[in-house]
Amino acid sequence: MNHGYDFPRQIQFANQEEKQEFSKFPTKTGRRSLSRSISQSSTDSYSSAASYTDSSDDETSPREKSQVNSKGSSDFCIKNIKQAEFGRREIEIAEQDMSALISLRKRAQGEKPLAGAKVVGCTHITAQTAVLIETLVALGAQCRWTACNIYSTQNEVAAALAESGVSVFAWKGESEDDFWWCIDRCVNMEGWQANMILDDGGDLTHWVYKKYPSVFKKVRGIVEESVTGVHRLYQLSKAGKLCVPAMNVNDSVTKQKFDNLYCCRESILDGLKRTTDVMFGGKQVVVCGYGEVGKGCCSALKALGAIVCVTEIDPICALQACMDGFRVVKLNEVVRQMDMVITCTGNKNVVTREHLDRMKNGCIVCNMGHSNTEIDVASLRTPELTWERVRSQVDHVIWPDGKRVILLAEGRLLNLSCSTVPSFVLSITATTQALALIELYNAPESRYKQDVYLLPKKMDEYVASLHLPNFDAHLTELSDEQAKYMGLNKNGPFKPNYYRY
């Protein structure tokens, strides 16, 4: 192609000295080593693009450190309490776009609807969840908190929470042993026993059932926000082993239609760009699962020019994908041609070693579902495969023939492991969680049995109404005649429980 400029076939040097200077630059092999060292140094400087946290601190495990906050408390275990000031700034930024949750905090602060509540929580620890935790504290609750994901904790935010008096046990890059140790420290505290559980993924609930079943004698309810955790709760309920009421936040309208859809629509691109700098236009992408998360991911990728196909087990979701313009395929039919494979199912072994063996060189593999079971990462830890850390949360898995697959966050949740998520949409979920906790904690014993419940429709509508002022949105009001014609209360709820938004 002629660009109007004739490029010389060989670089011309003005003199011998300049030629010698150029020769100092590394050869092809040297450049590869330099690239690796640059990548490694960037990993050493920052634990993730999403976190300020400087990991050039000593590499001592937080479990071996003795730290106290400014009030003299040591009831926490985090990376570095000295980062609290930076974390406080992160939380303040998040608060600006979480006005509905702040509004709820101000409205209910005087009543203290969670006075006496002892909440043990296991969620991602980010600036946005910190706003939720501090809202619960403002409403009267005592909180102990740990992380539901070993990579998603923002260390500076954990420090800010610990400085404010919240007992938090989490840091970015925990080992599996650290993960369960942190959960245990949250639950097993002498002289303190939880009476409410807020979970994301079901690991905290599982641990309490396994190690401290007597805790459930005082627990008034469980609030769960992930598809994985909700699935576990329904299994317990079906087996007759669920001994307290549980609120399924994941399937509330405000979670499904906003967090799962709109949040993932934006954060999938953010996570992929930060980790791989990939260009989406023209890329062949397969998204496994076309639920709300899959719909959000497909919409975003398609908008940037990617060629997207979908895998599905559900004929209804498959038909939706077809009507939205996506080809529905089986993964083994297309895996050889794909530039990216993204899982969004909440299931296990969606991407197996057989699929990984057939992928082409440079294929990006990542997970947008909550659980880390969707990609069979364990099958990649074998002698014949080489793992090469490129940067934080990015690994090359290298086959004997030189083929490389790019694995992100070791198969864990991409957006919260590798980037951040929009504060506004998390305000919707966090407000829903707070109201669910208030409802279960204050409900008379006869209202909820030992089963899994959806949030009342009226509460979903209230959460949505709190967020409308951000858009200067004005709702139309029904006349008495219209309300009577439709058989509705003028103040809602406006849809029956079976309505699908």
Automatic annotation (TrEMBL):
Region Disordered, residue ranges: 1-72
Annotated positions binding NAD(+): G291, E292, V293, G294, K295, G296, E312, N415
GO annotations of cellular component type: cytosol
Residue numbers binding substrate: T126, D200, E225, K255, D259
Domain S-adenosyl-L-homocysteine hydrolase NAD binding, chain residue ranges per copy: 260-421
Bias-annotated ranges (Low complexity): 35-54
Annotated signal peptide: none
Pfam family, one: AdoHcyase
Domain of life: Eukaryota
Cofactor binding, note field: Binds 1 NAD(+) per subunit.
Xref: PROSITE patterns: ADOHCYASE_1 (PS00738), ADOHCYASE_2 (PS00739)
Keyword set, alphabetical order: NAD, One-carbon metabolism
GO biological process, one term: one-carbon metabolic process
Cofactor annotation: NAD(+)
Matching InterPro entries: Adenosylhomocyst_ase-like_sf, Adenosylhomocysteinase-like, Ado_hCys_hydrolase_NAD-bd, NAD(P)-bd_dom_sf, S-Ado-L-homoCys_hydrolase_CS
NCBIfam families xref list: ahcY, PRK05476.2-3
Family: Belongs to the adenosylhomocysteinase family.
Name assigned to this protein: S-adenosylhomocysteine hydrolase-like protein 1 isoform X3
Gene label: LOC113107615
